[in-house]
């Protein structure tokens, strides 16, 4: 079944129109996408390896996220995507907005949550994800430099969040 998504304007407001995911948008039309950065109490980042069958960036490590469906918010979308992709239940009350970036035809809402998750309890959506793991911030930065991890525009905000957490904790 085709996935319907709301169309947004450049201000991030819904236009009232919808489109089928994968269809081209007209000039001035945007699609809302979302991701969530899951950080544990050791300030490690939970990352996932994209399935080799993905059209965009197969076999690349990434964070969790995707397209926001019709009548869904970015927050609801990131909760759904994390559950669908790896089986983690994230509570909205624990999630903090990280940033909103508008570029090309996308509006990217990024969120961050500090939450523990046992890798052995993961349920991977095989068409989306082939592996998951926890990495340190230093490991993540090296993975980006080596082009093993997707270079997200919001990555500087994630780095800043983790560094601030280190300062708060006296690390």
Overview of this protein structure:
With 171 residues, the chain is an alpha+beta fold. The protein contains 3 helices and 9 strands; from the N terminus they run E-E-E-E-E-E-H-E-E-E-H-H. The chain has helices at 74-86, 137-145, 155-169; strands at 4-8, 14-20, 31-39, 45-50, 61-62, 64-67, 96-103, 106-114, 129-135. Strands 3, 4, 5, 6, 7, 8 and 9 form a 7-stranded mixed β-sheet that branches. A two-stranded antiparallel ribbon has the order 1-2. A hairpin with a 2-residue loop joins strand 7 (96-103) and strand 8 (106-114). The longest helix is centred in the last third of the chain and has 15 residues, at 155-169. The mean pLDDT is 94.
Quick synopsis:
This protein is an alpha+beta fold and about 170 residues long.
How many β-strands, per DSSP?
A: 9
Helix content: 10-25%
Radius of gyration: 16 Å
Major sheet size, sense and barrel closure: 7 strands, mixed
Q: What integer is the average pLDDT? A: 94
Features:
171 residues, alpha+beta, seven-stranded mixed sheet, two-stranded antiparallel sheet, 3 helices, 9 strands, globular
Present the secondary structure layout.
Elements (H helix, E strand, L loop, with lengths): L3 E5 L5 E7 L10 E9 L5 E6 L10 E2 L1 E4 L6 H13 L9 E8 L2 E9 L14 E7 L1 H9 L9 H15 L2
Parallel strand pairs: 3-8
Antiparallel strand pairs: 1-2, 3-4, 3-6, 4-5, 4-9, 7-8
């Amino acid at each position: 079944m085709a996935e319907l998504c709301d169309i947004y304007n450049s201000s991030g407001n819904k236009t009232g129109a919808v489109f089928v995911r994968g269809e081209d948008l007209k000039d001035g039309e945007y699609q809302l996408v979302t991701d969530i950065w899951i950080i544990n109490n050791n300030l490690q980042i939970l990352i996932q390896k994209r399935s080799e069958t993905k059209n965009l960036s197969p076999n690349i490590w990434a964070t969790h996220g995707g397209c926001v469906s019709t009548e869904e918010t970015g927050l609801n979308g990131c909760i759904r995507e994390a559950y669908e992709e790896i089986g983690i239940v994230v509570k909205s009350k624990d999630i903090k907005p990280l940033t909103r970036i508008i570029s090309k035809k996308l509006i990217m809402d990024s969120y961050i949550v500090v939450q523990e998750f046992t890798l052995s309890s993961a349920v991977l959506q095989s068409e989306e994800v082939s592996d998951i793991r926890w990495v340190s911030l230093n490991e993540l930065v090296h993975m980006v430099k080596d082009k093993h991890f997707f270079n997200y525009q919001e990555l500087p905000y994630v780095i800043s969040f983790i560094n601030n957490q280190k300062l708060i904790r006296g690390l």
